[in-house]
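Re: [ENG-882] Designed sequences occasionally contain unexpected residues at chain ends

Forwarding the minimal case from QA. Structure tokens:
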């Protein structure tokens, strides 16, 4: 899938929003990607998962690990295409952990799957969950890399779409300075905080 095709898919699904958003990294941005609006269509989720799987098949991952909630659906689809299992880490008392009886062994080659990488923070944290269990992390993949190449992971990061939308420190955000309310994607209500 080419860059323009992907952007077109995001636009058709109203998943590429413009406004004033607070990202989960704490940064503000004029653009927001709501991947769930693409992934709500199983045929799109399946196609994106298959394409990501093709990028890393040679690395022979044995397990997909995703951070909840954003990485769940795409992680499942990547795992389906690779023929491996998909597990997820969840936040508990502020830290990502394996719950629900999920476990990793030292022999496993873990692929971390995200929907969107913004700073790389949650990707690094998910990688640490795998490494703490003794597993090896072979790569990370995401549908969209918003980091502009700054995610600085110590494994390869493959994304279907590089989209470096501008982000701002809240203290220096021109949108805040202009008085623009922080918007919740998909609604006209003012809200503070949502995932991404
Ligand atoms: Zn702002």
């Amino acid at each position: 899938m080419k860059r323009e095709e992907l952007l077109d898919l995001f636009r058709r699904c109203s998943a590429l929003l413009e406004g004033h958003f607070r990202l989960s990294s704490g940064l503000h941005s004029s653009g927001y990607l709501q991947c769930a609006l693409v992934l709500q269509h199983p045929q799109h989720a399946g196609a994106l998962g298959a394409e990501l799987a093709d990028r890393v098949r040679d690395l022979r991952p044995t397990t997909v690990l995703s951070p909840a909630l954003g990485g769940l659906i795409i992680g499942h689809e990547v795992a389906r295409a690779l023929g491996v299992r998909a597990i997820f880490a969840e936040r508990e008392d502020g830290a990502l952990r394996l719950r629900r009886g999920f476990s990793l062994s030292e022999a496993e080659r873990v692929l971390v799957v995200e929907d969107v990488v913004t700073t790389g923070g949650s990707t690094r944290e998910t990688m640490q969950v795998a490494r703490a269990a003794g597993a090896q992390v072979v790569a990370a993949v995401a549908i969209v890399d918003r980091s502009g190449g700054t995610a600085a992971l110590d494994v390869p990061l493959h994304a279907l779409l590089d989209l470096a939308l501008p982000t701002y420190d809240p203290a220096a955000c021109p949108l805040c300075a202009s008085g623009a309310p922080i918007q919740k994607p998909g609604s006209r209500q003012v809200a503070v905080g949502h995932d991404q």
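QA comment: On inspection the terminal residues look reasonable. The first helix runs from residue 3 to 12. Proposing we downgrade this to a documentation issue.
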